[in-house]
Amino acid sequence: MPKEPEISLAEKTFVLEALKQNLRVDGRNIHSFRDIQFSFGDDYGFVDVRLGKTRVLARISAEIIRPRPDRPFEGTFTISTEMGPMASPSFEVGRPTDLDNTLSRLLEKSIRRSTALDLESLCIVTAQRVWSLRADLHFLSHDGNLIDTACIATITALAHFRLPVVTVSGEDITIHPVTERVPVPLSLLHWPICVTFSFFGEDDDGEMVCVLDATAQEEALREGDMTVTVNKNGEVCQISKSGGVAVEAETLMKCARKAAEKVKGIDKLIASALRGDEIARNKGNLDWLKEGRSENER
Amino acid sequence: MEGLRNDGRRWNELRRIHCQLSTSSTNADGSSYIEQGFTKVLCNVTGPAEPSSRQKVKQDAATVTCEVYFAAFSGTDRIKRGRNDKKVQELQTAIQKTFASVILTHLFSRSEITISIHILSQDGGTLAACINATTLALIDAGIPLKDYVCACTSGQSTSIFDNEGSTPDPWLDVNYLEESDIPSLTVATVGETEKIVALSMENKVRIEMLEGMIAVGISGCAKVKGIMDAEVRRYGKTRLEAATGE
């Protein structure tokens, strides 16, 4: 397996000493994210999220299947993540790294276990037909913080996705094409967003240095990390800190509160990006949009 | 019956903890067995030994590897969990990373320490029991650690505030029924300091509740440390007496 190039001693000392004075190599504040950029594809549920040089592509697809016999009212939702050499030469296809496992479990816990997606709303005919949703994540470039980027991409793609309208009459199920009926958005109950903190030991005042949105270089040098998943309502959906440097409980609580604050900002960014796309998409044929909605401008 | 949980404990009471060192005398360098209520875990440690593959060789530190085996009969339903099961892998990574930061690995460069854990029975707090068992087995193997790593769970009985605006006490050391009912977290601390080395929560909880849950978890860790330390000292004493023939 090709190894990541090791960071030279001089560089390592420089980065760590700077962090102790709360300075970062790229000039950011220790608690600030890089710019988040969204670009949407022609289809619904296709989004490309960039966080600095990190780039993740999410694609939602849906098909109709027979539900599991023990859960006849529920649709299914799976998240598939696969890292290849596209993101970083140290990732190999078919041989999952630790990061790969952590990432897929974290997304699972953050989005699926916190019931962000109402699975019962995906039911078409009980015990007969349900929607099966699938989120495919492609990692195009790795410059740190893949977890947060992947989570933002998945949530944005889910919020952007539209299911075709299905009508049931007796035994027949009709799927109406997008051109015939306006497709409907998924029922997302909340938007869980992951925020990862990287710990770099204590600074001169004896306080733990907690950095947000670490780059690949910072990730290689960090002593420990913690991922907190919060939604904008201040509900913590998941916390995981496995190993690494031991941190005071008070510091961890501060991190959790910081995460809740950050998530509100990210939530707004996602919402405004989605609104921007909707406006761009419906340019010129807004009448068509009005017809499909029950509400109209009064 | 006011204020009692379904198994008769109060909010701040642990379940019975029974622990043993050197449970497997031939196969491992260190071994332990722990029961926390009905959660039962067996742990073997081998090493420091020559790494099993060249990939695992680190020039300046020992490599810590962890293998977790769930017995098919350990839960309420008979489930066979293979090696590639995501949950097994997550548990392995969590334990491996936790101990890699606590074992003084720099003393054993180019060697490997293998932790293998067998989960015999699950009744809530599996991760916590695994971490506690591993600490004991590492002590039995004589591998230098910074301090005991003790883990405990805690849960929040309701997710709403009562009329006075205060939250009810979090529950210490949740069992399987409680774990599937209420939001709970696992916290692992180093020794008697309140420094957290591992923290894991999988349910949705209001951020205001978190602090209380962590605080109760940490107090549980201190209690667990006392129990484990007493057993280590008792076992050490019997070994010493056997060796000196008294």
TrEMBL record, chain A:
GO BP terms, alphabetized: exonucleolytic trimming to generate mature 3'-end of 5.8S rRNA from tricistronic rRNA transcript (SSU-rRNA, 5.8S rRNA, LSU-rRNA); nuclear mRNA surveillance; nuclear polyadenylation-dependent rRNA catabolic process; rRNA catabolic process; TRAMP-dependent tRNA surveillance pathway; U1 snRNA 3'-end processing; U4 snRNA 3'-end processing; U5 snRNA 3'-end processing
Compartment(s) where it occurs, according to its Swiss-Prot or TrEMBL record: Cytoplasm; Nucleus, Nucleolus
Gene3D superfamilies, sorted: GHMP Kinase, N-terminal domain (3.30.230.70)
Signal peptide: none
Alphabetized InterPro entries for the sequence: ExoRNase_PH_dom1 (IPR001247), ExoRNase_PH_dom2 (IPR015847), ExoRNase_PH_dom2_sf (IPR036345), Exosome_comp_Rrp42_subfam (IPR050590), PNPase/RNase_PH_dom_sf (IPR027408), Ribosomal_Su5_D2-typ_SF (IPR020568), Rrp45 (IPR033100)
GO-annotated cellular components: cytoplasmic exosome (RNase complex); nuclear exosome (RNase complex); nucleolus
Pfam families xrefs: RNase_PH, RNase_PH_C
Alphabetical keyword list: Cytoplasm, Exosome, Nucleus, RNA-binding, rRNA processing
SUPFAM superfamilies listed in its UniProt record: Ribonuclease PH domain 2-like (SSF55666), Ribosomal protein S5 domain 2-like (SSF54211)
Keyword rRNA processing set for record: yes
Domain Exoribonuclease phosphorolytic: 33-164, 192-261
Predominant localisation class: cytoplasm
Family, similarity comment: Belongs to the RNase PH family.
Protein name, as recorded: Exosome complex component RRP45
Gene source species: Arthrobotrys oligospora (strain ATCC 24927 / CBS 115.81 / DSM 1491)
Organism lineage: Eukaryota, Fungi, Dikarya, Ascomycota, Pezizomycotina
UniProtKB/TrEMBL annotation, chain B:
Membrane spanning stretches: none
Location of the Exoribonuclease phosphorolytic domain: 13-144
Primary residence: cytoplasm
GO cellular component terms, A-Z: chromatin; cytoplasmic exosome (RNase complex); nuclear exosome (RNase complex); nucleolus
Keyword Nucleus belongs to the record: no
Subcellular location: Cytoplasm; Nucleus, Nucleolus
GO biological process: exonucleolytic trimming to generate mature 3'-end of 5.8S rRNA from tricistronic rRNA transcript (SSU-rRNA, 5.8S rRNA, LSU-rRNA); nuclear mRNA surveillance of mRNA 3'-end processing; nuclear polyadenylation-dependent CUT catabolic process; nuclear-transcribed mRNA catabolic process, 3'-5' exonucleolytic nonsense-mediated decay; poly(A)-dependent snoRNA 3'-end processing; rRNA catabolic process; termination of RNA polymerase II transcription, exosome-dependent; TRAMP-dependent tRNA surveillance pathway
Single GO MF annotation: RNA binding
Oligomer and partners: Component of the RNA exosome complex. Specifically part of the catalytically inactive RNA exosome core complex (Exo-9) which may associate with the catalytic subunits RRP6 and DIS3 in cytoplasmic- and nuclear-specific RNA exosome complex forms. Exo-9 is formed by a hexameric base ring of RNase PH domain-containing subunits and a cap ring consisting of CSL4, RRP4 and RRP40.
Family indicated by similarity: Belongs to the RNase PH family.
Protein's name in the database: Ribosomal RNA-processing protein 41
